[in-house]
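Record pair follows.
FIRST:
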Amino acid sequence: MTTTDHDDAELEKTGLPPVAETVTRPLAVSGIVAAVWAAGIGLTVLTTITLLGWIAAPRGALGTGLPGVFRTAVGFWLMAHHAGFTVPRGRVGLLPLGLMVLPGALLFRAGGWIARTGRVRGRYRIGVTHAAFALAIPYAVLSGLLALVASSSAIRPSAWQALLLCFLLAMIAGGLGAARTLVSTTNRAPWVAMLGLLPRRARSVAAGVTGATAVLLGFGVLIFLTSLLFHLSEAKNLYDVLKPGVVGGVLLVLIGLVYLPNAALWAVAYAVGPGFAVGAGTSVSPSGVFVGMIPAFPPFAALPEPGPAPAVSLFALAVPFVAGAVGGVFTIRYQPTEATEAAPLWGFVSGVATGGVIAFLAALSGGPLGGGRMAVMGPSAWQTGLLAALEVGVSAAIAAWIANWRLARRTPPSGQAPLDDDQDTEELEFEEPDPVLATVDEPLPEGVIPLRKRPASDH
């Protein structure tokens, strides 16, 4: 990039390189532009994949003609946001959670762009909320219109689910993207620094919930893959029944990958206790396995044999208690307390919040797969969430009490910094915020310390 004489003069005068001005737009305009960009890129990717499948597969499978292919791609785009649809034989709500990665990543980028270019006013936390709303509202309206476009006599997407779930995904992913942009000048790891935007106690609870949920989901993936490894012959038999061919085999593997988060959450439901259903009147839980005919889909080969639950699978019952221990330690690690009796309370609160998160994810992981027996698929959200809250909450309370007690032993003598100001809980430091969010002009949130502004040069 070349410099002008004006830039050289400014460099010679101030001793500092010129700072490029950030172009700002009205927040509503930035939100609309970002929403159209995120939806357009997602539709382009899915339309390309659908078109390739239409060329390789029988022509009637993915629509008739290019308009039908586009309508199918819009349906896939809505499915990626977990919006269900109705077919002549019933409703389909068992959708892959892995597809949400595509729109989630695009909305994350869009939220960061809004934070950089939109005229966001108010405190930093409020600014992040405004950026998220500016993206979520037009994105949800656009998704509702696309649901009407994709509707046909054979498939009718749920417009209200498209509006609600697209709004929630845009709020969460876009808000995280805006927050990530805000902390881009911090000297801490980005995801750790983002916690600094929360109040101190909310920060500690969020850290505990994140740690416990990550442990549950990680063990869920491990349980599923281990069970599938022990049933590879059954998976091969199901694959042979389908006879997908080369192209179909690749698509089948991709479908299995995008359903991996669903399988992990079903394994979490098994570890927590209630288990899950693979059809009306069926149950897969530690108390026993009662299944009938199952869909010819290779991941279902991981299901245990009907009868008593395998003894080795009962070790999975320890998973929620391990997750609670991690969550309790994280909760106290981020915010110790001088009141010993309060530590178990905050640990239990993080466990209950973890149960709420698991209940929400369990509800998304299941759903009907048409009518008849397949109308009931997946775990019970309220049962899984309730037992997860109790199991994770109790172990988190115990772990939080022990962790706080150990920290209290290292409390400095009276007259020095109290436990709440423990040096382990470092505060965030931000550089001059103007180059990042030029229009956010209110003070930083509690716990965020701005670095010194660059001194003006006299020469």
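SECOND:
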Amino acid sequence: MGRTEAAEHSFAACPLPVGPGPSGTGPGAGARAVDADVVGAVLRTARAVLAERVAQAAEIDASFSGDLAGRVAGFTLEGGKRMRPRLLWWGMRACGAADSVSTAAALRLGVALELIQTCALIHDDVMDRSRLRRGRPAVHIGLAGRAGLSPDSERGAAFGTSAAVLAGDLALVWADDTVAETALPAAVRRRVGALWRAMRTEMVAGQYLDLHGQATGGSSAVRAIRTACLKSALYSVERPLAIGAALAGADERTTAALCSAGRSAGIAFQLRDDLLGVFGDPARTGKPSGDDIREGKPTYLLAVARTRAEAAGDEGALAVLGRAVGNPDLTEGDLAAVRGVFEATGAHAHVEREAERLRDDAVRRLGEAVDVEAHGGRQLLGLLRTVSGDRSGRAADAGTSDADTGTDTTHGTRGHDSRTADARVLTATEGGSTR
């Protein structure tokens, strides 16, 4: 029972990208430097925060630090488009903030968002029994190998799963600590704290609804949208935007419009991701189609198809869905039949229309919240169009390096691969539908 041979997540193996830091001279110089490379600035801040956390862990126990703390730090620094910190940053900048206190706070809170995402992804891989994440062994698989156990043995699987739960918990603890230790004016701290507490609970609620839908084998369209709202729209888009607005001291009207734009964009993302999960081209998505069907995911697409088939008395369509949904041995022929049901019932076209409507609503509401012709508003408009799956080619200002920052196209084997090779369209992995 040897150690896992594939490369594992390592804190020491995560060099920082080269790019401008938040230093400079004159009012707003630090913010303008971050504007040029938001991801690089977030990663520099993450490196400093995590180095301190790992050092504290080492003082407690070397094994704990090397096996668990270092792995959580390395996982957080690797891969991903950092969309949540980018939304937070550009939400703040679109609302007019550029002072040094807000700049430093936005970067630290961006790190906290990445850490809570680390918690979510580690736990999600355990729940979905995913063996890979970002082309490497998932944390529970790597931890079993680190202990010299086979992840396929009963003992190794039990240890890896239990240790991964602790790793996810540690990431959540670090996220909370990072928020608590961020310097903020009292009024801003109260606003940010309320948003942070709500987001954590919403994230768990969304995952529970998703698990419940899979276990019970059914979900209404309303329930599916509610799950998408909690897992994708609120956690991944709306709350990061609201935190950015809070840092900028935005008023209630601006914040409400910004949140509405984020919610519409986040749900549009989820609907498009549901479609890609069934109709996506494997050459572009990097994974076989149909994982959501195999896993019995209670998607809006599936709920609409079932509702329409029931209303039409289409027993044949219902039989196809009954055989295929939740069947881990789904064949290409079975999947083709499911696609046929989605087309024949009109579910495919309906979901496409809804995604387009929500995308347009997000753009309209953002225009009510901020000046989309100004630099910060223009960047935020590009991000929301990307989130909502706008394929028109209109995105953030191509003159800044943040506009087209990194893709992450090598995720796990069950529901975690990137669903497009196009850097301009987000996937469930980054946008949050499966965490």
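COMMENT: The longest helix spans residues 186-216.
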